Amino acid sequence: MNMKTAYVHGYLPREARRLYDQADTLAPLLHAGTAYPAGSWVLEVGCGVGAQTVYLARNSPRARIVAVDHSEESLAQARAYLREQEPDADVTWRTADLLHLPFKEAEFDHIFACFVLEHLWEPGKALATLRRLLRPGGTLTVIEGDHGSAVFHPDSPHAHEVIGHQVRLQAAAGGNALLGRELQPLLSGAGFGNVVIRPRTVYADRTRPALVDGFTRNTFIAMVEAVRDDALGIGLTTAADWDRGITDLRRAAEDDGTFHYTFFKAVAVNPMS
Amino acid sequence: MNMKTAYVHGYLPREARRLYDQADTLAPLLHAGTAYPAGSWVLEVGCGVGAQTVYLARNSPRARIVAVDHSEESLAQARAYLREQEPDADVTWRTADLLHLPFKEAEFDHIFACFVLEHLWEPGKALATLRRLLRPGGTLTVIEGDHGSAVFHPDSPHAHEVIGHQVRLQAAAGGNALLGRELQPLLSGAGFGNVVIRPRTVYADRTRPALVDGFTRNTFIAMVEAVRDDALGIGLTTAADWDRGITDLRRAAEDDGTFHYTFFKAVAVNPMS
């Protein structure tokens, strides 16, 4: 899931806190089923401030995790967070660009990437690169959202319009906020085998107030709201139309509102040659 | 899920067969968790040709089922189907209109309604009527789709346009193809308590060929295709635009395509007074 402002400013403690809270809200859903054996080498790409790394470490306490990000500041934050949350975790931190990773072929048993491919201009190329770092038989796990899956009540074309602006801005930045639905052909096309996609959905209504707050308000709506200045700045919309859309979207978090969103989790295997 | 043609012509063996096949595809998903105790009185409203009734009977073999539909022809078909599939089932068949049901207050322990509310002009009114037929503490189970939840690859505005025509036609007929997202406020508003909504999603790609055929092609796309003549007849679209949208939608069922759809299953309780 794109959280543009948060992503860019992940090194600010306050923004990092927001990312950690969002990860805590979604972790039971997204990390279920992901646990790596003791001693296995696991590469996490695009670890950012470590919001997912902490769950990798927690669920695979004896795996050897190598976490990579292009931002030194994010990594510093991630390191501090893991020291606080999982002091015994075996994590090595590396600064590197996703397309120029400093690793040898077949160096890893498993690779994990959450909310990373959606930011890339050529996700298929990145996947092919990652596959070469996996031993034959090793697995890749990818998690992505898809903003086209957002279903909410009350429905509103104005609310869909502001979500659409977020999608357009992410596309203009070279990313894809509708990537979840494409994981199967993307991973297959990059040479992975046994590509299995499992949708993981979040549904929030008044019976689940923690999700209404943690997901509808503080994750999804907050993420859309974060691009307001960009959307107005390039003339995608007017302040009045933007505010109308956001006001409508917020109704999904009120007492009679509902919100449903789908993440797509893919697990695939680097074939034995 | 609206299957307009099939619904209207449910008494034709061939159309009925299509409905049974669709129900068989979805039953593991939709009926999971629905089983009623021995001896309990269960009302199924809008049973049609018995496509869901057979699963109610199978999963609750000792419940006493009363299945109601407004169409005598559908009921004849349903009766024949149950006799063939579940000859020992305890099912009583009744012809009646949903808003004028020939039952006493608090007569039933449980009520089940699948793909029924979406056809009603005033679903809230129908729910309030149904609630009076339940004993205090009795449960209502409702299952509805939501066409706004359809996410597919390759994405296509033309394909979304034809789905939109289906939604518009259903609305023009007094129904609502986007009802799934509204179940929480609808049931709460009708006086039910403990309203719990569970999304049940279908995801089909090349690794699940039976679902690509059974759901993407023969349920969802077939349902949209069934309204072609109506859409052209009232000038919603042109033949060329329609065919372009359907052609695009069919790509979701091809080798590199994906399709994701969400049903909403609600279980609610008639409060102890």
UniProtKB/TrEMBL annotation, chains A, B:
<protein>
    <submittedName>
        <fullName>Methyltransferase domain-containing protein</fullName>
    </submittedName>
</protein>
<dbReference type="InterPro" id="IPR029063">
    <property type="entry name" value="SAM-dependent_MTases_sf"/>
</dbReference>
<dbReference type="InterPro" id="IPR041698">
    <property type="entry name" value="Methyltransf_25"/>
</dbReference>
<keyword id="KW-0808">Transferase</keyword>
<dbReference type="Pfam" id="PF13649">
    <property type="entry name" value="Methyltransf_25"/>
</dbReference>
<feature type="domain" description="Methyltransferase">
    <location>
        <begin position="42"/>
        <end position="138"/>
    </location>
</feature>
<dbReference type="GO" id="GO:0032259">
    <property type="term" value="P:methylation"/>
</dbReference>
<keyword id="KW-0489">Methyltransferase</keyword>
<dbReference type="GO" id="GO:0008168">
    <property type="term" value="F:methyltransferase activity"/>
</dbReference>
